[in-house]
Amino acid sequence: MVMAATATKPRGNAVAGATVALVLLTAMNFVNYLDRYILPAVQEQVKGEFHLTDSQIGSLTFWFMLAYVGVSPLTGWLGDRFRRKPMIVIAALAIAAMNFFTASVHDYWSLNVRHAALGVGEACFGIFAPALLADFFAENQRNRVLTIFNLALPFGAACSYEGGAWVAAHYGWRMSFVTSAVPGAAIALLIWFWMREPKRTGGAEGAAKVDKAGVLSLLRNPAYLSSILGYAAVTFSLGGISWWMPSFLHRVGGYSIEAAGGVMGPIIVVGGLGGTALGGWLAQVWSRRTRKALYLVPAISALLTAPPAVVCFFGPRSLMVPSLSVAVFLVFLGTGPVNAATLNAVPANLRATAMAGQLFALHVFGDMFSPKLIGVVSDHWNLRLGLGVTVITFVLGAAIFWWGAQFAPVLHDARGEAVA
Questions:
Q1: Domain ranges in the chain?
Q2: Do 24 and 229 form a contact (C-beta atoms < 8 A)?
């Protein structure tokens, strides 16, 4: 109640209810990533029970991402035309329901169906939530806000790796999914009762009709395209590594399944949270001097991640965990800035559509195929070589961000005055 009361007055570059919305949506984003990374944490047990190949394990992500990108055009269309709060609540409840459903899965194809259905719920939330937050905060504050929102990614993934592996080791892998469903349902109810639906910002621009020409204009917007395609290249790498690293630590590093989760958890908490926070702060400060900062920070992040990734995959076992820690810290530097760059590059009336386009690119050109590809390479050669593919796309992502920096739009504060 205190939070709700303190968030009812406009404050600086935010409007009434902004703080409550940021807290609740960040909490739900935490659950979102908690749910997503449970399967990688327990996949060695799943593989053993269902007698699967690495290629089949990698295919689970393919069906998840296929559903994710298949529904994104519809969710983008809905998000730019209708109230987003009810749709966010429905998506959150759907995510929780899919995790409850996993307890009754007893064959590989049912697991595929469940994972695909989870992708639909996550796609809806991933499109509606950032677009709604953009209506609460001004352009020059979105990097800070989305950095906070995206702190949920490493924290959720870390809790999923460590907590999911622990629950699976003691109570079975199905119970790992059941325990993640409860917080999602609870937060959905809090969003329904506490969060406001903001007015769409942008004045006449925000009220403009969303038509075919407006949507197609995104394909001629280099600032937007470079942000989503650079992010897609990095996501190819990050998605593949996230999916296979627990198995890599188990098979190559010699860790037990529970111990592998115990290693991944602290690395992602410390490195992911630290990298996300530092990258957001760096971009916020640098943006006061140049509008290119929201592109240059992700570029530097991706480029610097490649060397420690090589050491982790191909170096001595003694350097596996230290180099992984450095790589995780560096790759998360660009998480907040790149999402702010995407939203700032488009008109107010196209934000949900733009986020849908981003999700489509992230997964069609990013992590839809990387776990499968790594699994195929692992089946034919080894997992070291499979993960080595991701180094190439880190460098590619850095190049795309660097190129896109020249098209970065001028940033404005809540009064419409240029700040960079």
A1: 15-407
A2: no
